[in-house]
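step: validate -> pass
step: tokenize input -> pass
step: predict -> running
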Amino acid sequence: MGTDLNESPKREVSLVLNKYEGVIKRYREFLPEIDDKHIITILEGNTPLIKARNLGKIINPDIEIYFKYEGLNPTGSFKDRGMTMAISKAVSEGSKAVICASTGNTSASASAYAARAGMKSFVLIPEGKIAAGKLSQALVHGAVVMQIQGNFDDALSITREIAKDYDVALVNSVNPFRLEGQKTASFEIVDELGAAPDYHILPVGNAGNITAYWKGYREYHDAGKIKSLPKMLGFQAEGAAPIVLNHIVKEPHTVATAIRIGNPASWQKAVAARDESGGLIESISDEDILKAYALLAANEGIFCEPASAISFAGLIKLNGRGFFKKGDVCVLTLTGHGLKDPQNAIKVSKEPIVVPCDKNSVLKAMGLK
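step: predict -> pass
step: emit ->
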């Protein structure tokens, strides 16, 4: 019998649509069980691992540098990996609303996944201290956004109290299902490289991500999928470096708003990840964060938010101390997309050139005449 030409295109489309179904279905053997009917996904994960093309030659040609670009998740940050788990679990338990405290990315992710699930979302943010790109996401997804006259840590304290006393699911990273979802990024890295990197470098704000990555690497190791484990290298902004200083920072400040946190919820777990892996957690100045941010965009075509660029700033700092040896493989997590915080992109860039409306003036501005 011949092929039905009317059915063939439909079948091809179906195959494409079913190729990837989000992190829960892809890695369900390593995740808490959630029934298919409760899974809320926007096809998060499956983000690119981009090998440095130009910056490796500039910084250190003897090491391999890869960027895990989490800014290409559905809402533009790594938070989506954990949020699919947290919201799915909330749905399975019959919750009708979720709440979170946020410096931006969590609010965007929580509100998007809540909208997908048909749930109400409530967001508490520090007044005037959230990037416009992130605030706009929470608002457009229909969240009830409340700006409190305090910092992130104050907001998290309030949300924890509300979740304890009322039927509202807390979806910050204190929710263990968030970290379960976030660990899938380490699985993807190993699946692509065929082994764990020598070093994994990432920002440390609320400290859930370094905790989650380490958990994922250890689980893959225990399952026999990798023979060795990476050293975890975390970096905090100098004005928001409680783990480095070993005390709570009551008024954290940094241009990297996503990690402007003075009392990380996963503090002790992050310290454990650092110590168990033989890694470190250090601080970086805002000046060096912005330099790395601009270098990434100008030399690799990768536009990330400032908090993401601290990973690269950290690599530059350690490389200057002769930290790496020939052949080392370094994976850097870039946590969020640059469009989350366009104001800083404008600040570190040259202003557009204003020229008369004629060809010769344009050629002159181009340096061709």
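step: describe -> Residues 208-222 form the longest helix (15 residues).
step: cleanup -> pass
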